[in-house]
Amino acid sequence: MAILIIHILFLLQQGKHHDIIDRVTALQVYRNRYLKREEDIRSKLFIKMILVMDKEFFEYEKTQQKTEKYLDQLTKARYTYEGSPMDAEVVPYETLWSMVLKILKEQGH
User: What is the pTM of this model?
Assistant: First the structure.
């Protein structure tokens, strides 16, 4: 999942929004297939936020407004590392999301 997220951020920075659609689909498949535990709530919320960004055509204002509730839930959900690389948040999702919003704002979407 970390590779998919980094790839999405990389494509977003480059303004390659069409290429992000395939990665978003892969994230949805990953979420539906593997994120079933209660401990996966942070990852599920972050993926929801990415899906909103895609659905809102990478528009900063709409994306920010429609993801506020998910960001609030993400902030309240405590991060716990279970010892597996699959569970690791190398960079906290809140930080990644602020990077996403910054990129969208800079791109004027």
Answer: 0.89
